[in-house]
């Protein structure tokens, strides 16, 4: 097994499990789990990236870290977090149709509450298309949205952390 994969999969798996647990916890607290899970990911991803890349540098690679090593390890970590989180949320929503319907109704209510603003800024056509798409939304859509919104900040944070932790000499 590649040293990068071996050093990073633990951090990605644990981070992804934390995101799924946060989704469940936020639901139990009565908070919209999709929004809060996304925000929790913005907090969690940089922590796991920093710890994982630093672990790779100090424990696996003898104290050295090139930018490309940091980007590779970071990519593996945030991709694993995103995959576990997205799949976990998708499975939870498949197993709990009532939770899926709650999330769907919540999103429809939010759209309707903001109708005036949306129509003013984007036009009635955009509102109608969005409304129709929300009516056809599936559990997979919510899981894949979570995946995407963990990948995007993951890339951003990986670049920054790889630059900060880069060390080309002992």
Automatic annotation (TrEMBL):
InterPro entries for the chain: DUF4199
Transmembrane region(s): 12-31, 37-56, 76-100, 147-165
Domain of life of the native organism: Bacteria
Record keyword Membrane present: yes
Keyword Ribosomal protein set for record: no
Keywords for the protein's UniProt record, in alphabetical order: Membrane, Transmembrane, Transmembrane helix
Descriptive protein name: DUF4199 domain-containing protein
Species: Belliella marina
């Amino acid at each position: 097994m590649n040293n990068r994969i071996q050093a990073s999969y633990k951090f990605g798996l644990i981070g992804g499990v934390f995101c799924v647990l946060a989704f469940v916890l936020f639901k139990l607290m009565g908070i919209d789990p999709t929004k809060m899970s996304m925000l929790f990911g913005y907090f969690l991803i940089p922590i796991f990236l920093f710890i994982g890349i630093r672990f790779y540098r100090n424990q696996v690679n003898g104290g050295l870290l090139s930018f490309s090593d940091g980007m590779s390890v970071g990519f593996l970590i945030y991709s694993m977090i995103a995959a576990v989180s997205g799949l976990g949320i998708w499975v939870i929503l498949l197993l709990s149709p009532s939770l899926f319907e709650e999330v769907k109704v919540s999103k429809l209510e939010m759209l309707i509450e903001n109708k005036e603003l949306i129509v003013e800024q984007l036009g009635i056509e955009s509102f109608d298309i969005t409304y129709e798409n929300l009516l056809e939304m599936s559990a997979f859509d919510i899981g894949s949205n979570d995946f995407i919104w963990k990948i995007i900040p993951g890339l951003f944070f990986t670049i920054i952390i790889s630059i900060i932790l880069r060390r080309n000499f002992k």
